[in-house]
UniProtKB/TrEMBL annotation:
Chain residues that bind pyridoxal 5'-phosphate: N71, G174, T175, T176, G177, T178, S255
Highest taxon, organism lineage: Bacteria
Cofactor(s) the protein needs: pyridoxal 5'-phosphate
Domain Tryptophan synthase beta chain-like PALP: 6-281
InterPro entries: Cys_synth, Cys_Synth/Cystath_Beta-Synth, CysM, P-phosphate_BS, TrpB-like_PALP, TrpB-like_PALP_sf
Catalyzed chemical reaction(s): O-acetyl-L-serine + hydrogen sulfide = L-cysteine + acetate
Pfam families xrefs: PALP
The protein, known as: Cysteine synthase
Residue(s) carrying N6-(pyridoxal phosphate)lysine: K41
Organism in which the protein naturally occurs: Neolewinella marina
Molecular function in Gene Ontology: cysteine synthase activity
Family per similarity comment: Belongs to the cysteine synthase/cystathionine beta-synthase family.
Gene3D superfamilies: 3.40.50.1100
Length: 290
């Protein structure tokens, strides 16, 4: 019988090539919604919690506090519940109802901050609470165990499952752990692999994709691992999410739609290639926004 944590990772690739017409291009989505907590963030959350436990940074009487836009919080809540660690999660009040309820179902305390102050204020509040001495942050934005999870697992899985034939990797950029860790691994296997980050256009609000102000750029982000960035609009991300469900049977969130939209734009520029994009979660936690 498998322990819950053994089910994290080794997610499948699904062929999305029918979304475009060039027979010399293969497009695959990595279905991170198959993780037990329903998203790619299970990998980083497990790595960060395990790292802090092994270093003795998360001892008796300490409570985790973390700012999150959704998926990381759900993953932390799931892992903390399994390990019987108390957790407080802080997120903007415009987060979807499904995400808030899911965190609370795992037993987490959820604090909602003003939407107009964005996740950046949630991060500031988490820091203030840690400074009080009663809480410990995992701090996904500066914790190297975040990107290392993807260096150890996501990158090797993609390289293995494409038989080393991948030419382009596309990932939405939020905390940037996925693109930094996966990009580093794939570049080490072949410098020719292009790592493509996805950001929102100015004025677009896409859950899970961020364009950070300079003072809030995640400390774990390594720009040398990203060969190119593609901007996608909120409309593009939403419409592509719908296409994934209706044309491919893949029900995913808008950040996955954004990554797929960028991958298709990239495919339109190429004569041939093998593109992998991250389908970072399941669509059921966005139903109230449809």
């Amino acid at each position: 019988m498998n322990h819950l944590f053994s089910l994290i990772g080794n997610t499948p690739l699904v062929d999305l090539s029918t979304l475009q017409e060039n027979s010399k291009i293969k497009l695959y989505g990595k279905l991170e919604g198959q993780n037990p907590g329903g998203s790619v963030k299970d990998r980083a959350a497990f790595s960060m919690v395990q790292g802090m436990l092994s270093r003795g940074e998360l001892g008796p009487g300490k409570r985790i506090v973390e700012a999150t836009s959704g998926n990381t919080g759900i993953a932390i809540a799931m892992i903390a519940a399994s390990l019987h660690i108390p957790v407080t999660l802080i997120m903007p009040e415009n987060s979807t109802e499904e995400r808030v309820k899911t965190m609370r179902a795992y037993g987490a305390e959820v604090l909602l901050t003003p939407a107009d102050r964005t996740i950046e204020y949630s991060r500031e509040l988490a820091q203030e609470m840690e400074d009080s001495g009663e809480y410990v942050q995992l701090n996904q934005f500066s914790n190297d165990d975040n990107w290392k999870a993807h260096y150890r697992t996501t990158g090797p899985e993609i390289w293995r499952d494409t038989d080393g034939q991948i030419t382009h990797f596309v990932s939405s950029m939020g905390t940037t752990g996925t693109i930094t860790g996966t990009g580093r691994y794939l570049h080490e296997q072949s410098p020719a692999v292009q790592i493509v980050g996805v950001q929102p256009t100015d004025g677009s609000s896409i859950p899970g994709i961020r364009r950070w102000s300079p003072e809030f750029v995640p400390a774990i982000y390594d720009d040398s691992q990203v060969d190119r960035k593609i901007d996608v609009s909120e409309t593009e991300a939403v419409e592509m999410s719908a296409r994934l469900a209706r044309e491919c049977g893949v029900f995913a969130g808008t950040s996955s739609g954004g990554a797929t939209a960028a991958a298709l734009r990239l495919a339109g520029e190429l004569e041939e290639g093998l593109i992998v994009c991250i389908i970072c979660d399941r669509g059921d936690r966005y139903l109230s926004t449809l």
